[in-house]
Specification:
The protein is of the alpha/beta class. Helices cover 44% and strands 10% of the residues. It contains 13 helices and 6 strands. A 6-stranded mixed beta sheet has the order 2-3-1-4-5-6, with helices on both faces. Strand 4 (290-294), helix 11 (311-317) and strand 5 (319-325) form a beta-alpha-beta unit. The relative contact order is 0.08. Mean pLDDT is 76; it is low at 74-79 and 198-203.
Length: 376
């Protein structure tokens, strides 16, 4: 801090006047005969012990280190208290600002971790999703390379003419390697084959049942579950939690099965996933397409399932999830099973997307490892 300019003669005059006043005061005390002794010194309070005095000294030193120097301090720079009482110095100090350090300026009063945390989670989920998409595209490109190689035209070689003369047919469609008798026998064989094919029963292609590659997700049928057939589209497709009672009051009707669409970033449909709550009517092929199940917590939910209805064996084949609120404890049965818990806030709906994206991250890894043949 720059020292304020003060008239040297005025400051010297003030110091001399103060010295004379102190000397006159001390002379008056000597004339009165006042002496300092152990008798006229008052004792400190019994409660203020030496340990407490030491603690007070340490606190005062810490306050001095952390405090910002102001114009109320005893000294400014090297100037004594007497110099501060002059009118010119007081006027200068009144226009000065209190200095602040870089650390004091950057200190904030609000904690923004609750707001910044979900944003970082969303960014990380998007990055992980892009990585999984890149891995799937790479595998698809690797699988397409052999097919492309087989469909490529053969390169001409003068030493390998047999591959260009497989049919042995001239420009006019005459097979030079056959005979008239051979042609008659081949025509007879073709007639017999057509007669056999005509007697066999034929079924049109439209009536043939083809296996659907779409995956299946099972949700609980109990109305007390946080995910049901009423709100499964909102939770899985829109990544937003809406209670089942609210959906019922709004006019949503029960459907035994619904399809949710998983879309890419450009808006195109990536896959259609079937959601049901009654797996008792599934066939063997359809059980192979079951990829996920939402667990409510009771073992009777898996009664009549394959693998003897044993949850431990079921969760080795199918990925299991459980949805709950943050303040709700996890049930003991669910804690003992191989179930991933998805926690949602009861009031903060803007945090649903970050929590529900964990379901898709886990399922992307599971599908890539366990069931890559299904559309996902």
């Amino acid at each position: 801090m720059r020292k304020p300019r003060v008239d040297a003669e005025k400051s010297a005059r003030d110091r001399e006047q103060e010295r004379q006043q102190r000397a006159a005061k001390f002379d008056a005390q000597k004339e009165q005969g006042v002496t300092i002794s152990a008798g006229n010194i008052g004792k400190l309070s019994d409660t203020l012990t030496e340990d407490k005095l030491a603690i007070l000294r340490l606190k005062r030193r810490a306050q001095k280190r952390n405090a910002i120097r102001t114009d109320t301090d005893d000294t400014v720079g090297d100037l004594p208290v007497a110099d501060l009482e002059s009118d010119g110095l007081q006027e200068i100090l009144s226009r000065e600002r209190i200095g602040r350090t870089r650390a004091d300026v950057t200190k904030g009063t609000k904690d923004l971790s609750a707001r910044i945390g979900p944003i970082f989670a969303m960014i990380k989920a998007k990055e992980d999703g892009k990585k999984i998409d890149a891995q799937v595209k790479a595998q698809q490109s690797k699988a397409a390379i052999p097919a492309a190689k087989s469909s490529a035209p053969a390169v001409y070689s003068r030493y390998d003419q047999e591959q260009f003369n497989k049919d042995n047919v001239t420009d006019f469609g005459i097979n030079t390697m056959s005979s008239y008798r051979g042609a008659q026998s081949s025509k007879a064989d073709a007639a017999n084959k057509s007669a056999v094919d005509s007697t066999a029963p034929t079924t049109p292609d439209s009536q043939r049942k083809k296996a659907s590659p779409n995956p299946i997700i099972i949700v609980p049928s109990a109305p007390s579950s946080m995910i049901t057939m009423y709100n499964c589209v909102d939770i899985l497709q829109d990544n937003k939690f809406i209670e089942s009672d609210v959906k019922k009051k709004s006019g949503t009707k029960y459907e035994p099965s619904v399809y949710i669409q998983r879309k890419n970033q450009d808006g195109t449909v990536r896959a259609a996933i079937k959601v049901i709550d009654n797996p008792n009517f599934l066939s063997g092929d359809e059980w192979d397409r079951v990829v996920a199940v939402f667990v409510q917590g009771a073992a009777w939910q898996f009664k009549g399932w394959p693998w003897n209805g044993n949850p431990v064996e079921i969760f080795e084949k199918i990925k299991a999830f459980h949805i709950k609120f943050d303040e709700m404890p996890v049930e003991k049965t669910i804690a003992n099973w191989n179930v991933q818990v998805l926690s949602l806030s009861r009031t903060k709906r803007h945090l649903d997307r970050a929590s529900l994206l964990k379901f898709w991250e886990t399922m992307d890894k599971f599908m890539l490892k366990s069931k890559p043949s299904l559309r996902w």
